[in-house]
């Protein structure tokens, strides 16, 4: 192996074109999924504090936005719903006439080619804000599975291409896959939020979706942040239960988990660049402390370099202009 002065790694860094030639990782808009929030009403576009540039939109406005996204080259969205009412058992999540179900039907019509992925969880729809059914202060696992599977099925019936269970109950992927297949929806994909950590980086999202738990926290079902091997076990179990893809969430503080999953599993790996990751760069940029475009591109490139195939990011729309 030759060394200095024969070897000079700066040679390929000399110009833009030379750097581009040896670039190992590239961002492609088609690898991105853009989160959308559907809310009741007509003509509603309510900007979200903590998620600058992102808004809750009523279905009519959401459809206009979807057309705009397709014009920009964004081909996939992840749908979240903000219901009119919440109750103990999250009925709005699996109501055929629920906010996400109605949004799906309209989006199918107005933006036919757009890939529609839905977040499957109860927390946006439960009065207590937990992701499953609560009894005497405990989040029940097996009882929640049936409701989560019903939610996924109702999304499939309304036109979802893929459902993404984010609740972290044990056995949910099998329950969802089983119900979908039993009802003729074997073509609908399941993207498992397999390694979803009990993270502080969901703050702005919880504000936006009104899903902060009324008591306790999500540590009895979401992963403990120090654990990597346990995350790999989650991925393995989910793939065994029929997941088509696994997700690591958040992304930036868990790049090691993304890399380890990439090494271990051939399945597509999604990474969720969550609200807090977005908000901290937005806030620093607003204070003039860093350049948003550069910081965002560097972050998203790091997530891809770590091994993510698909990135869910609030920057997807801005990215369309930057790339
Ligand atoms: C619901 C859900 C959450 C996010 C996605 N789905 C919040 C949570 O688990 O508290 C977080 C998304 C984000 O922060 O951008 N289970
Ligand atoms: Zn949830």
Which secondary structure elements does this structure contain, and how are they paired or packed?
Layout: H1 16-21, E1 32-39, E2 45-47, E3 55-58, H2 59-72, E4 76-81, H3 99-110, E5 115-120, E6 133-135, E7 138-140, H4 142-158, E8 162-165, H5 172-182, E9 189-196, H6 203-209, H7 229-240, E10 245-249, H8 255-264, E11 269-273, H9 275-286, H10 292-306, E12 310-313, H11 316-322
Parallel strand pairs: 1-3, 1-4, 1-12, 4-5, 5-8, 8-9, 9-10, 10-11, 11-12
Antiparallel strand pairs: 2-3, 6-7
Helix pairs in contact: 2-3, 3-4, 4-5
Bound molecules: ligand PBG and zinc ion (ZN).
Ligand PBG binds at residues 119, 121, 123, 131, 166, 202, 205-206, 211, 274-275.
Please, could you describe this protein's structure?
With 323 residues, the chain is α/β, with parallel strands linked by helices. The chain has a single domain, classed as TIM Barrel (Alpha-Beta Barrel). The protein contains 11 helices and 12 strands. It has helices spanning 16-21, 59-72, 99-110, 142-158, 172-182, 203-209, 229-240, 255-264, 275-286, 292-306, 316-322; strands at 32-39, 45-47, 55-58, 76-81, 115-120, 133-135, 138-140, 162-165, 189-196, 245-249, 269-273, 310-313. The strands form 2 sheets. An 8-stranded parallel beta barrel has the order 1-4-5-8-9-10-11-12, surrounded by 8 helices. A two-stranded antiparallel ribbon has the order 6-7. Helix 2 (59-72) crosses helix 3, helix 3 packs parallel to helix 4 (142-158) and helix 4 (142-158) packs across helix 5 (172-182). The longest helix is centred in the middle third of the chain and has 17 residues, at 142-158. Zinc ion (ZN) is lined by residues 121, 123, 131, 166-167.
């Amino acid at each position: 192996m030759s060394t200095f002065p024969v070897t000079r790694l700066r040679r390929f860094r000399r110009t833009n074109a030379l750097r581009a030639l040896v670039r190992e990782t590239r961002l492609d808009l088609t690898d991105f999924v853009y989160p959308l929030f559907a809310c009741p009403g007509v003509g509603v576009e309510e900007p979200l504090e903590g998620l600058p540039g992102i808004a809750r939109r009523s279905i009519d406005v959401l459809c206009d936005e979807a057309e705009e996204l397709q014009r920009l080259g964004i081909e996939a969205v992840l749908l979240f719903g903000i219901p009119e009412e919440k109750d103990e058992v999250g009925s709005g999540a699996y109501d055929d006439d629920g906010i996400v179900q109605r949004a799906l039907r309209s989006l199918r019509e107005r933006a036919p080619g757009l890939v529609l992925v839905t977040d499957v969880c109860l927390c946006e729809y439960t009065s207590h804000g937990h992701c499953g059914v609560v009894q005497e202060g405990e989040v029940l696992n097996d009882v929640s599975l049936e409701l989560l599977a019903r939610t996924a099925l109702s999304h499939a019936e309304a036109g979802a291409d893929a459902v993404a269970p984010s609740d972290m109950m044990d056995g949910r992927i099998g329950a969802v896959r089983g119900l979908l297949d039993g009802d003729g929806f074997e073509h609908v994909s399941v993207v498992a939020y397999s390694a979803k950590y009990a993270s502080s980086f969901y703050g702005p999202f919880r504000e936006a979706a009104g899903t902060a738990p009324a008591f306790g926290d999500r540590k009895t079902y979401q992963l403990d942040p120090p654990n990597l091997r346990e995350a790999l076990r989650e991925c393995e179990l989910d793939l065994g239960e029929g997941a088509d893809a696994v997700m690591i969430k958040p992304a930036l503080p868990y790049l090691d988990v993304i890399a380890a999953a990439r090494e271990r599993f051939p399945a597509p790996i999604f990474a969720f660049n969550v609200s807090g990751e977005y908000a901290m760069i937005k806030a620093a940029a607003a204070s003039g402390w860093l350049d948003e475009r550069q910081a965002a591109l560097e972050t998203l490139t790091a997530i891809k370099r770590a091994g993510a195939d698909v990135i869910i990011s609030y920057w997807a729309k801005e990215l369309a202009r930057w790339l």
